[in-house]
Inverse folding.
C-alpha cells in the first residue's frame, strides 16, 4: 500500500530537475504519446458512433421499424390487418405500400429505380421523407394523376425537375402482335426529396398507392405493411409478437434483420479500431518503462540511502510506481480533455479544414453520408481512460520492482 512517504518522494522525483535531460524528454514523450492515443481513440470512437447513429436514423427514415408481408410479397386483407397492427403495443403508425422495380427515362437519360407506391397521408407516420422534401410536397401524389416524387441525385442524373415528364418502364411485359413489350407509363415529377443517403436519393421513386396497384397489376392488394414504433430497439420483440399473431403464412421482419450484416460490420469495425488505436497508448506505456528504468539507474545512490535509513523494498517500489503513475495519469487526463473537445467540435473542425485545403474528405457518391458526424458516449471515454490507466500502472511494475532489488552496499561502493 502506498503511504504518504512513497507519495511524497515519488512526486518529488517527478518534479525534480534531472541532470539527465534525456530522461525528462522521454517522460514528456510518454505523456504526449498517451495523450495522443487517448485523444485519437475517443475521437475515432465518437465519429464511428456518429456514423452509426446517422446511418441508422437515415435508413429508418426511408425503410420502417417493422415490415409485414404475405405470401409472394402480396397482402389482400391488408385493411383489417392495419387495424390489428395499430392496436399492438408500441406501434405508433402503420402504412401500406406497393413495391416494384423499373427504369426511369427522361430524354436520353436512363436510371434503374426502386418504385414504392404509398398513401401520402399514412407515409408521414412511418418515414421522414415528407420532412425531407426539397421541392414540392408528398401530398401532391394524387391517385389517378400518375405523379411521381424522386430523389435529389436521381433528378440530377435524369436532368429532371418539378414539372418534368418522365417515363417509367417496368419489367412486366404486355403481349402484342409484335411480341412481348415492356409496360411503359408517363409520370409528372411533382416533388424532389433529399434524405441524405446517396443510395436512396439516387434510386428511389415514390408514386401513389392506387397508381402503383394499377401499374403493377396488384388489383386491391399491396406488397406489405410498414410499421413505426415508439422505440426502435423494441422492433425484434414487436416483430416476434406480430409473427406469432399472424401465423407462418406471413413474413414479419424488423430493421435489425434487414440490415443485420451492415450494423454488425459497423460494430466489428468499431471494436477493431479500438484495439488498433489502443496500441498507440501501449507504445507510450513502453516509454514509461524506459523512463523509469533510466531513472532507477540514475537514482541508485538515492535508493541506497533510502534503504539504509529504513525504507523497505515495498516503499522503494511504491516511490517509482507513483512516479510512473503520474506520467500515465497526466497523459490520460490531457488525452481525455483533448479527445472530448475534438469529439464535440468535429462537425465544425472538419468543414473548416476542407475549406482551407479546398477538398472534400467524404464524397456523397462514394459513401452513404457526405459529412463527418460525431456522437460522444461517456461510456467510451470511461473505457478508454481505464484502459490507458491500467496499461500505465502495469508499465511501472517491472522498473519499480527492479529498484526495490537494489543492493545498498553495491550502489554506494563507488560513491
Amino acid at each position: 500500500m502506498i503511504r504518504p512517504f512513497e507519495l511524497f518522494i515519488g512526486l518529488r522525483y517527478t518534479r525534480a530537475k534531472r541532470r539527465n535531460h534525456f530522461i525528462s524528454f522521454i517522460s514528456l514523450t510518454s505523456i504526449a504519446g498517451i495523450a495522443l492515443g487517448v485523444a485519437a481513440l475517443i475521437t475515432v470512437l465518437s465519429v464511428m458512433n456518429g456514423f452509426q447513429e446517422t446511418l441508422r436514423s437515415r435508413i429508418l427514415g426511408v425503410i420502417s421499424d417493422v415490415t409485414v408481408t404475405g405470401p409472394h410479397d402480396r397482402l389482400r386483407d391488408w385493411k383489417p390487418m392495419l387495424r390489428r397492427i395499430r392496436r399492438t403495443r408500441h406501434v405508433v403508425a402503420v402504412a401500406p405500400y406497393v413495391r416494384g422495380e423499373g427504369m426511369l427515362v427522361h430524354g436520353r437519360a436512363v436510371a434503374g429505380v426502386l418504385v414504392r407506391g404509398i398513401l401520402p397521408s399514412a407515409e408521414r407516420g412511418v418515414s421522414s421523407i415528407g420532412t425531407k422534401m426539397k421541392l414540392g410536397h408528398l401530398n401532391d401524389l394524387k391517385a389517378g394523376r400518375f405523379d411521381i416524387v424522386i430523389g435529389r441525385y436521381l433528378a440530377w442524373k435524369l436532368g429532371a425537375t418539378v414539372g418534368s415528364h418522365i417515363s417509367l418502364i417496368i419489367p412486366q411485359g404486355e403481349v402484342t402482335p409484335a411480341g412481348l413489350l415492356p409496360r411503359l407509363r408517363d409520370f409528372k415529377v411533382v416533388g424532389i426529396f433529399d434524405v441524405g443517403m446517396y443510395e436512396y436519393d439516387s434510386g428511389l421513386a415514390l408514386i401513389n398507392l392506387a397508381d402503383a396497384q394499377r401499374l403493377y397489376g396488384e388489383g386491391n392488394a399491396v406488397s406489405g405493411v410498414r410499421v413505426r414504433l415508439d422505440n426502435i430497439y423494441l422492433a425484434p420483440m414487436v416483430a416476434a409478437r406480430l409473427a406469432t399473431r399472424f401465423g407462418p403464412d406471413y413474413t414479419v421482419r424488423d430493421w435489425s434483420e434487414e440490415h443485420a450484416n451492415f450494423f454488425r460490420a459497423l460494430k466489428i469495425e468499431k471494436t477493431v479500431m479500438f484495439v488498433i488505436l489502443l496500441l498507440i497508448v501501449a507504445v507510450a506505456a513502453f516509454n514509461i518503462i524506459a523512463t523509469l528504468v533510466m531513472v532507477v539507474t540514475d537514482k541508485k545512490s538515492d535508493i541506497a540511502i533510502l534503504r539504509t535509513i529504513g525504507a523497505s523494498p515495498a516503499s522503494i517500489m511504491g516511490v517509482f510506481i507513483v512516479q510512473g503513475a503520474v506520467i500515465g495519469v497526466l497523459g490520460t487526463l490531457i488525452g481525455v480533455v483533448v479527445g472530448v473537445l475534438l469529439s464535440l467540435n468535429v462537425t465544425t473542425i472538419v468543414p473548416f479544414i476542407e475549406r482551407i485545403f479546398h477538398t472534400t474528405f467524404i464524397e456523397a457518391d462514394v459513401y452513404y453520408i457526405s459529412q463527418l458526424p460525431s456522437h460522444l458516449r461517456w461510456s467510451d471515454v470511461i473505457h478508454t481512460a481505464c484502459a490507458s490507466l491500467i496499461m500505465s500502472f502495469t508499465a511501472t511494475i517491472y522498473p519499480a520492482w527492479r529498484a526495490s532489488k537494489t543492493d545498498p552496499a553495491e550502489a554506494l561502493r563507488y560513491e
Observations:
- The radius of gyration is 32 Å.
- Strands lie at 66-69, 91-106, 109-118, 133-136, 147-151, 165-176, 179-193, 204-208, 224-229, 251-254.
